[in-house]
């Protein structure tokens, strides 16, 4: 029998590592998802870098950001970003907060982020700004109080992405995979928009194009395709990292263990990752 909560923890841990591998999250930033069976709760990793997160690191919190099960794990200071958006938006099932370098120039200059390619339409139409100075004056530029969280949620409004002046971005999604997709391609769109603006005037998608492209990008078919791709890239990277961390063996030890010099360990690890991806596809097909 399947365990929805265990599956959600597994998927959220994978999402953390995908976003790190794709350059959206680094030592900072976080992604959460609404509880699969309890809309009054959400799941988020313990305090730490996204690249390190595994299912055991995923915690279950109330919408007041209190752990359901007492824990000694350290929590993120900006949990209110997630909790307040979930409170304000029942249609939101995942939230990501990041400081990707591609998006920060827009946060710094106040330049409007607009869709300039079809996948960039995922940013969700208008992208509003939120400036903590407007209501809270000087702060350490982190969102830590319920008042700040609710203010940010109001700025997001019915939209899917909001830029925090001089800080970063917060992205919402109807599902975890949609939120990951939007987070990745908002960053790609921002990078392309910056490059295009450096060359000359930009041509943006029309409102109709943006709406149609966004709808096409968020179908289960498209989301599963990108998830499969990002998961494969993640497994390949993790396999290569694991090989790199293996202690070096002497020639005699390598020969004794049957290691074949004609098949480098990195290639074998990548092949294993590809095999796992194929098995996953076949399992889903059934």
Tell me the layout of helices and strands.
Layout (H helix, E strand, L loop, with lengths): L3 H18 L8 E5 L6 E5 L12 E5 L16 H10 L5 E5 L5 H6 L19 E2 L1 H5 L9 H11 L4 E4 L3 E6 L2 H24 L7 H11 L2 H26 L5 H6 L8 H21 L1
Parallel strand pairs: 5-6
Antiparallel strand pairs: 1-2, 1-4, 2-3, 4-7, 6-7
Binned strand content: 5-15%
Instruction: Estimate percent helicity.
Output: 40-55%
Rounded mean pLDDT is: 91
* Estimated radius of gyration: 21 Å
Q: How many distinct helices?
A: 10
What does this structure look like?
With 286 residues, the chain is of the alpha+beta class. It folds into 2 domains: 4-217, L-fuculose-1-phosphate Aldolase, CATH 3.40.225.10; 227-285. The chain has helices at 4-21, 79-88, 104-109, 132-136, 146-156, 176-199, 207-217, 220-245, 251-256, 265-285; strands spanning 30-34, 41-45, 58-62, 94-98, 129-130, 161-164, 168-173. The chain has a 7-stranded mixed beta sheet with strand order 3-2-1-4-7-6-5. A hairpin with a 3-residue loop joins β6 and β7. It is globular. It starts with a helix and ends with a helix. The model is unreliable at 258-263 (pLDDT under 50).
Essential attributes:
seven-stranded mixed beta sheet; 2 domains; alpha+beta; 286 residues; 7 strands; single chain; 10 helices; globular; L-fuculose-1-phosphate Aldolase
Quickly describe the structure:
The protein is built from ten helices and seven strands.
